[in-house]
């Protein structure tokens, strides 16, 4: 067929013919061979080539990692001729690998210390496919390894053809190539890059082998302009000795697409052999051809067993499904993976399980069966659809009976499954068969780590641990930074165990993409346990041999079984002996080596886990930290061969726990086996203990109980009652807290009450002795344990933890029958806050004696917080006066013109603890603004505060409401408030007084000041006495009192809070200065008489002063100085003075 486009040219033209696509274009555009996108030209055109190797779907979905090079450079990825030599394919794989975090390797019975490694030729992709095979004549156990990029054989004209290798189970790494398909006729075929060995399967011991080359090409019109090629693929069936018997009709090559309709819409790009398998009944060989019908794919079942012909069955098959028979769209890749089995959908009928990883862009798995004996069609019985976009659901499938019910379960790999919000890279879906009713099955999903491609390979590895349930292996080749991992999962009666029993890693072996292929379910080293092989894309494969699984049986006896504490049987102490006998059992009677085991006998293991000392010690141990443990070794000569040991233990002195028995634990481990060689020079593997077996046996040593019944069982009858008390400050006596609300005690917390006390009485009336009796109290942070008070002859001892949230109070060991005790548990209230609404206490009586009714007692206390707050107020000055002349408010310019200055200060006082809880409160002030006539009384100039934050009182309009009056920081003298003339007489005052407070005569405004804190907050109000009002209305009174009231208000007050704060009143005394000027007019004649009288008095005064000479001036002579002559006389001496006096 002549190429019609670059798409077809890339996929079908010879490598030497017209080149129209680059290497990257071939990967992005040629769907026939590239599993990166195996679709038609229309689909390929939607790919993005901006980043080599990454693609997006035709629907435009970006970032979903659909069909990358890394993902699908696999069995069919080399559909196109690759340039660059034999290493091109693995190089592409390694280039696009992603890196993951490492995972701890678990260990069960696949031996990781004696791994057999098989290496192939570099660049050959040795290990791409694997199969275990057993020849019966001669008896050989082999690992078959496909290397689809191996060099061509001698008679082949191609350079790279691929091949199949057989490897014996020895420590040697060399393998031998199996020669077949050794000729090539270039006139009709091309084997260049045919990828022989892309898949390989064995029928089982003595059975046949199938291997395929899915890129095998049929040529037509060679060396002519009409030359074309069909990539049909071809498979070979080999006999059990890996040769082709020409006399056997079922051996040799199989090419079911040859000679059929050509073109990619039919069978021109068939790619038969991408998957192939044998049915479990040996009758058929099954081929997958995912390239047929526009890459929708087909599955074909061919008769294989020649014995059917001998039995007269000449026309059994072939059977095929494809095209309209399959409810899948084009580009689904049906036949990409295959397996088969009976009892999948019904009874003994054969069912073929086929994967289609591109179906509906998510993947699907189809269950197929024969339509009838007379029909050659396969019908679809059930279809599983992939749940995740681009998950490659169906990339690999396996049939396995995980739960041992006889019905075959199905395991499906979806290596590209991801969840955007979780680190998941690949998934495996496990469908547990419900007697063939698949519509009732909900799969179990196993997850891999991010970008690990978990599920790219899944394999039935048989019952690897011989527990009667088959197991599976899951490959994750991009796990562990591209080194790869394999996860082993065990089956069970419930299905799959979702925790891996073992994880194998390729990193210790310096391998990359380890886990790309898997093989198992065959015993290669003749130890009756199936082994497993793991392939990679680093030209290497590893064989893991399964270690035998054994169980060690332990028989333990103690003597005596009961210890009487009153009988000393070991000098001055009490002793008992432990007899332990050991045998081992393997699942195969033929496995019978001599084992050396190490055993451990341990006393009181559970107590020591709790940090408590052991009550017993072994006598043949010195007094060390491990005297509770005895270790030793024993030889077991074979299965069911018993070995025993006797150990003596002594009871320690002064033990407290005399009620609970002493557990004696006996465990054993395999220490070694007698080494011996087996065939092929492989050493005998060390057995491993069965993981499902209990790790230890426990036997208990009991005590003979005193004060117990005839059956030696102590049945106590502990009962408890309690009351709540509180302790006032500076008092030793406790006062009972009586229930006040729905039988719940109420504790009023204030600065006068210090601690709570829980009065407890415990009795054991009409019961047996209560061993290790104690009361365990659990307390909240707001009422933590503080101490214990007891008035009993034997005091109660309580041990509390560091923060006082729990206390254990020992009542006695034993707490005797018919005894009682009373004590107080003191609780501190230091941790209580304003948020505390209640206290919950849990009291639990405990004893090692038998008592079923020891339920915990819940103690509840309601807490009422009494806030000890007060509001104090003062005025400065507290006495002011008024006087002068009346002045209207419009004439006033400054606040000094209003009247006397009065400063009010209100403080919030807390006499108790600092209140840290956010309590919303405000200070309310009743401010006397007007009298009953609507005249000003006190004019509010400014409000300020001291405290954590500034306080803004409301309404703000009441502060300096006359905006034209200027504030002043300095007060002025009385003379500045009008012309005030003092008078000497007070006859005009009435002698009465008056109190001005808010009420019907005085109109007040309420000022609300929100408080930011309740400690140390003060509000200051600066005001002026309205002088004119008092002159006009209150001048006749001797004095007045102005009262300003303040109170504290809580907003949204919790029910557990009480505010006991009385209102405060601040009084200021106001009095007139003296006589007050009259406001009525003065007659003119009075003014005239007063003026004339004044002139007359002034004239009289001047006259009198004149008469007295007040106005007479002195002359100049009167100012001249008068000088006197000074005479000097002889002064008498002291002697003369004394003589004169005598």
How widely separated are the two ends? 182 Å
CATH topology of the largest domain: Methylamine Dehydrogenase, Chain H
Enumerate how many helices there are, as a single number: 11
* Main beta sheet strand tally, sense and closure: 8 strands, mixed
The averaged pLDDT comes out at: 80
CATH superfamily annotation of the largest domain:
Integrin alpha, N-terminal
- The general outline is elongated
Number of strands: 66
Quaternary organisation = single chain
Catalogue the unreliable spans: 1-106, 970-988, 1075-1080
- Which structural class fits the helix and strand makeup? mainly beta
CATH domain class of the largest domain: Mainly Beta
Q: What CATH architecture label of the largest domain applies?
A: 7 Propeller
How would you sum up this structure, described in words?
Residues 708-863 form the Integrin alpha second immunoglobulin-like domain. Helix content is 7%, strand content 36%. It has 1142 residues and is mostly beta strands. The protein is built from eleven helices and 66 strands. It folds into five domains: 6-95, no CATH class; 209-519, 7 Propeller (Methylamine Dehydrogenase, Chain H); 549-703, Sandwich (Immunoglobulin-like); 719-866, ntegrin, alpha v. Chain A, domain 3 (Immunoglobulin-like), CATH 2.60.40; 869-967 and 990-1072, ntegrin, alpha v. Chain A, domain 4 (Immunoglobulin-like). Strands 46, 47, 49, 51, 52, 54, 55 and 65 form an eight-stranded mixed sheet that branches.
């Amino acid at each position: 067929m002549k190429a019609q486009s670059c798409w077809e040219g890339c996929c079908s033209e010879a490598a030497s013919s017209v080149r129209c696509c680059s290497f990257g274009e071939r990967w992005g555009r040629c769907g026939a061979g590239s599993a990166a996108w195996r679709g038609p030209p229309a689909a390929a055109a939607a790919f993005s080539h901006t980043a080599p190797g990454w693609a997006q779907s035709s629907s435009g979905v970006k970032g979903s990692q659909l069909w990358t090079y890394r993902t699908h450079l696999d069995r069919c990825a080399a559909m196109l001729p690759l340039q660059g030599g034999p290493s091109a394919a693995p190089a592409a794989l390694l280039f696009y690998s992603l890196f993951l975090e490492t995972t701890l390797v678990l260990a069960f019975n696949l031996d990781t210390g004696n791994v057999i490694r098989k290496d192939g030729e570099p660049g050959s992709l040795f290990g791409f496919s694997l199969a275990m095979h057993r020849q019966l004549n001669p008896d050989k156990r082999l690992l078959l390894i496909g290397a689809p990029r191996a060099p061509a054989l001698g008679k082949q004209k191609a350079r790279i053809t691929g091949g199949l290798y057989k490897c014996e189970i020895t420590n040697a790494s060399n393998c031998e190539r199996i020669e077949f398909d050794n000729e090539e006729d270039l006139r009709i075929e091309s084997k260049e890059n045919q990828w022989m060995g892309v898949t390989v399967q064995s029928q089982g011991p003595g059975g046949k082998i199938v291997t395929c080359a899915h890129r095998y090409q049929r040529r037509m019109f060679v060396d002519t302009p009409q030359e074309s090629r069909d990539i049909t693929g071809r498979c070979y069936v080999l006999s059990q000795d890996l040769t082709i018997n020409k006399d056997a009709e079922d051996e040799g090559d199989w090419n079911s697409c040859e000679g059929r309709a050509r073109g990619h819409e039919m069978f021109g790009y068939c790619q038969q052999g991408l998957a192939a398998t044998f049915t479990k009944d040996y009758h058929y060989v099954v081929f997958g051809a995912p390239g047929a019908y526009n890459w929708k794919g087909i599955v074909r079942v061919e008769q294989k067993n020649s014995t059917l012909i001998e039995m007269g069955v000449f026309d059994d098959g072939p059977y095929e499904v494809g095209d309209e028979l399959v409810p899948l769209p084009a580009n689904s890749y049906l036949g990409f993976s295959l397996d088969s089995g009976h009892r999948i959908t019904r009874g003994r009928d054969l069912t073929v399980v086929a994967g289609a990883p591109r179906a509906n862009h998510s993947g699907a798995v189809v269950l197929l069966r024969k339509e009838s004996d007379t029909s050659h069609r396969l019908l679809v019985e059930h279809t599983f659809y992939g749940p995740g976009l681009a998950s490659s659901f169906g990339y690999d499938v396996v049939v396995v009976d995980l739960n041992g019910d006889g019905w075959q379960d199905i395991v499906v790999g979806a290596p590209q499954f991801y969840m955007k919000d979780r680190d998941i890279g690949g998934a495996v879906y496990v469908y547990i068969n419900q007697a063939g009713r698949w519509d009732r099955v909900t799969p179990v999903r196993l997850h891999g780590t991010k970008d690990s491609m978990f599920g790219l390979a899944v394999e039935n590895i048989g019952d690897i641990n011989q527990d009667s349930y088959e197991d599976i292996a899951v490959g994750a080749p991009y796990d562990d930074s591209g080194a790869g991992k394999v996860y082993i999962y065990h089956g069970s009666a419930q299905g799959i165990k979702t925790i891996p029993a073992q994880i194998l890693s390729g990193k210790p072996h310096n391998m990359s993409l380890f886990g790309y292929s898997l093989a198992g379910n065959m015993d290669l080293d003749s130890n009756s346990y199936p082994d497993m092989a793991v392939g990679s894309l680093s030209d290497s494969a590893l064989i893991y041999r399964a270690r035998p699984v054994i169980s060690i049986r332990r028989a333990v006896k103690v003597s005596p079984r009961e210890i009487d504490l009153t009988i000393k049987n070991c000098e001055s102490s009490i002793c008992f002996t432990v007899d332990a006998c050991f045998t081992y059992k393997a699942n195969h009677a033929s496995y019978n080596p001599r084992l050396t085991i190490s055993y451990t006998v341990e006393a009181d293991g559970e107590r020591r886990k709790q940090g408590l000392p052991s009550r017993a010690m072994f006598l043949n141990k010195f007094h060390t930290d491990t005297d509770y443990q005895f270790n030793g070794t024993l030889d077991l000569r074979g299965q069911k061969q018993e070995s025993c040991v006797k150990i003596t233990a002594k009871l320690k002195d002064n033990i407290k726990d005399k009620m609970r028995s002493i557990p004696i634990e006996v465990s054993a481990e395999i220490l070694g086996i007698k080494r011996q060689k087996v065939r092929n020079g492989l050493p005998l593997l060390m057995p491993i203990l069965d993981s499902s077996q209990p790790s230890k046996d426990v036997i208990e040593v009991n005590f003979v109980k005193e004060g117990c019944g005839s059956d030696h069982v102590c049945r106590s009858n502990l009962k408890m009652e309690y009351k709540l008390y509180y302790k006032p400050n500076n008092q030793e006596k406790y006062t009972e807290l009586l229930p006040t609300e729905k039988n719940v005690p109420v504790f009023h917390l204030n600065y006068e009450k210090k601690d709570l006390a829980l009065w407890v009485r415990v009795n054991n009336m009409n019961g047996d002795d209560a061993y290790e009796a104690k009361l365990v109290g659990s307390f909240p942070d707001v009422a933590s344990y503080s101490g214990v008070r007891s008035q009993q002859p034997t005091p109660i001892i309580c041990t509390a933890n560091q923060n006082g949230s729990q206390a254990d109070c020992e009542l006695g060991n034993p707490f005797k029958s018919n005894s009682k005790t009373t004590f107080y548990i003191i609780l501190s209230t230091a941790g209580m806050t304003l948020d505390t609404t209640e206290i919950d206490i849990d009291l639990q009586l405990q004893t090692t004696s038998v008592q079923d009714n020891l339920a915990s007692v819940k103690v509840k206390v309601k807490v009422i917080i009494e806030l000890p707050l007060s509001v104090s107020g003062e005025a400065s000055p507290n006495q002011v006066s008024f006087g002068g002349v009346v002045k209207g408010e419009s004439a006033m310019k400054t606040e000094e013109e209003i009247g006397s200055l009065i400063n009010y200060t209100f403080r919030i006082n807390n006499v108790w603890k600092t209140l840290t809880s956010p309590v919303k409160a405000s200070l309310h002030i009743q401010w006397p603004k007007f009298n009953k006539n609507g005249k000003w009384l006190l004019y509010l100039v400014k409000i300020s505060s001291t405290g954590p934050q500034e306080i803004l009182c409301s309404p703000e309009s009441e502060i300096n409401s006359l905006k034209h009056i200027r504030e002043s920081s300095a007060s002025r003298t009385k003379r500045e408030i009008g012309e005030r003339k003092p008078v000497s007489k007070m006859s005009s005052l009435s002698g009465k007084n008056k109190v001005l407070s808010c009420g019907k005569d005085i109109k007040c405004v309420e000022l609300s000041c929100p408080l930011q804190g309740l400690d140390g907050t003060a509000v200051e109000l600066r005001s002026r006495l309205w002088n004119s009002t008092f002159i006009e209305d209150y001048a006749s009174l001797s004095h007045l009192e102005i009262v300003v009231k303040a109170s504290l208000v809580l907003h949204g007050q919790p029910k557990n809070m009480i505010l006991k704060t009385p209102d405060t009143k601040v009084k200021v005394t106001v009095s007139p200065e003296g006589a007050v000027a009259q406001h009525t007019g003065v007659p003119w004649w009075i003014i005239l008489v007063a003026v004339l009288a004044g002139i007359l008095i002034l004239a009289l005064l001047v006259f009198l002063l004149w008469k007295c000479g007040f106005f007479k001036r002195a002359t100049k002579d009167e100012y001249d100085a008068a000088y006197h002559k000074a005479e000097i006389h002889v002064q008498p001496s002291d002697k003369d003075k004394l003589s004169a006096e005598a």
